[in-house]
Specification:
heterodimer; A: alpha/beta; 8-stranded parallel beta barrel; 11 helices; B: alpha/beta; Rossmann fold; 8-stranded mixed sheet; 3-stranded mixed sheet; globular
């Protein structure tokens, strides 16, 4: 073999199950046969590991701040028992939160609201733990152009970073929302993506609020627009209802990976059959035999 | 004892637990917090994530550099993982702002440089940097580290820079990312991988088993 002897296979697209964790328990149904405790994040992580998931994302949705330390225990256990890559996000406010998660064993941390509230946290994380460990999660939503402009004006009035909407001709804008989708920011999604990369993000997880939970497919428009301008990997998120949706977003937008939740958790499709489908359609995925 | 060097560059427990999962010889898998502990180790692992200059700074400040070099001199097995592989080289192109280029001088144990991925094939809509995810190893010959694996195993990578050894004969696998780069090497008793065996599921565990049981 050697460099001239073989046809190389390129980097494969990652298929990433996302688990919502509340006070140490996985809260969306996970439909694995023979799981003794369907809410145990460690057991579920192991099952996904065996099933051939390329990576896992744990999203801490614990509302109460006092119970947040439970997540550190979860991270510790997963890191010690599952030999696969995983990212932890949800509720990160400060660089100390980031440090605690990394020290517990998270190899990447995903920052969302805090990145908007205090963008310094992005550069601090990148400086301390490397760009590769710094993931920014963003939640864009389609809004009327006038609404976006009002919100953007409010940013300008506060002296904040406030770039114009990137799709100028449209009467819609993709606006970033924070606090779990409750608070508009006046930030344009494409411009914000470029800004977080400039600050040190090594990966972007883009969750379309319009598509999320609808199972009608990923939002190809905003995913494509972001993937076309940033040099870091983009993970498409929100809207997956079938393996075909994954094929669509991976082949039509330039997204590098796909985040998947309910179709796996509720046993509608397995990772194996999803990857077999993608492989058959010519999408480069890692199959378990290798 | 298999020692894992804790020089403040990331969490090392997954490396420790992965070694514990594969090593049945009963040897201790110990995270070393001070450089004088190196003398007790039969095998040594230098893991790490983060920036090259930070890594060197931490090695220097912890007094690790000379003990690491002395350990390698003894001929006992040594494994560098990811940043731990890059630090073995002479120098890196990864130089932080406001710091002299000497900050990116490495340990000089393996001849060569650590380079940035560059070229028209990289950028928005093309190959992304960092190189993140599962890619394939194309082994050269039958390297002992990859024993027991299929011909082109998939392993997990997360890195923005890659190693370019001067002596190509030490390369034990190539991986393609816009260009072929050295994804693992073997120079006498020094082994190194750019990918993360401790994150590469059963394939990675097999490699760690190979390292833990290789004769010396």
């Amino acid at each position: 073999m050697g460099i001239f002897g073989t046809l190389f296979i390129l980097l494969t697209h990652r298929i990433i199950p996302c688990l919502d964790v509340k006070a140490g328990r996985v809260v969306k149904g996970v439909n694995f046969v023979g799981l003794r405790d369907a809410g145990d994040p460690v057991q579920i992580a192991r099952q996904y590991d065996e099933a051939g998931a390329d990576e896992l994302v744990f999203l801490d949705i614990t509302a109460s701040h006092e119970k947040r330390n439970i997540m550190l225990d979860v991270v510790r256990q997963v890191a010690e028992q599952c030999f696969m890559p995983f990212t932890v996000g949800g509720g990160i406010r400060t660089i100390d939160d980031v440090t605690a998660l990394v020290q517990a064993g998270a190899e990447k941390v995903s920052i969302n609201t805090a990145a908007v509230v205090d963008p310094q946290i992005i550069s601090q994380t990148a400086q301390r733990f490397g760009r590769c460990a710094t993931v920014v999660n963003m939640d864009p939503k389609r809004v009327r152009r006038e609404t976006f402009e009002e919100h953007r004006q409010a940013r300008i009035d506060q002296g904040l970073f406030a770039p114009p909407a990137s799709n100028e001709s449209s009467d819609e804008a993709f606006e970033i929302f924070i606090h779990g989708g409750r608070t508009p920011t006046g930030l344009d999604a494409v411009a914000w993506a470029q800004e977080v990369v400039r600050l040190g993000a090594g990966e972007i997880v883009l969750t379309s609020m319009d598509a999320d939970g609808m199972k009608n497919g990923y939002d190809l428009e905003i995913t494509g627009a972001v993937a076309a301008v940033v040099q870091v990997p983009v993970v498409a998120s929100g809207g997956c209802g079938s393996p075909e949706h994954i094929r669509e977003v991976l082949t039509e937008t330039g997204a590098d990976a796909a985040l998947v939740a309910s179709i796996f958790h509720y046993g509608q499709y397995t990772i194996e059959e999803t990857k077999a489908y993608l492989d058959q359609k010519g999408v480069a995925v890692r199959c378990l035999t290798s | 004892m298999i020692g894992i060097i804790d020089y403040g560059m990331g969490n090392l427990r997954s490396v420790q637990k992965a070694l514990q999962a594969v090593d049945h010889s009963g040897s201790q898998i110990t995270i070393l917090h001070t450089a004088d502990q190196i003398s007790e180790a039969d095998r040594l692992v230098l893991p790490g994530v983060g920036a090259f200059a930070d890594g060197m700074k931490h090695l220097r400040e912890g007094g690790w550099i000379e003990p690491i070099k002395a350990f390698i001199q003894t001929g006992k097995p040594f494994l560098g993982i990811c940043l731990g592989m890059q630090l073995l080289f002479d120098r890196s192109e990864e130089i932080p702002e406001g710091v002299g280029a000497s900050a990116a001088n490495g340990l000089g144990i393996v001849g060569g440089e650590v380079l940035a991925f560059e070229g028209d094939q990289f950028g928005p809509g093309k190959l992304k940097i960092p190189h993140m995810g599962w890619n394939t190893l194309d082994p050269v010959g039958s390297p002992p580290l990859l024993e027991g694996l299929n011909k082109q195993p998939s392993v997990y990578f997360v890195h923005g820079y890659y190693c370019q050894p001067t002596d190509k004969s030490i390369v034990t696998s190539w991986t393609d990312y816009g260009q072929p780069f050295c994804s693992s090497l073997h120079q006498r008793n020094v082994w190194a991988s750019q990918f993360h065996p401790e994150k590469s599921q059963t394939v990675g565990l097999q490699m760690l088993r190979n390292f833990a049981s290789c004769p010396h």
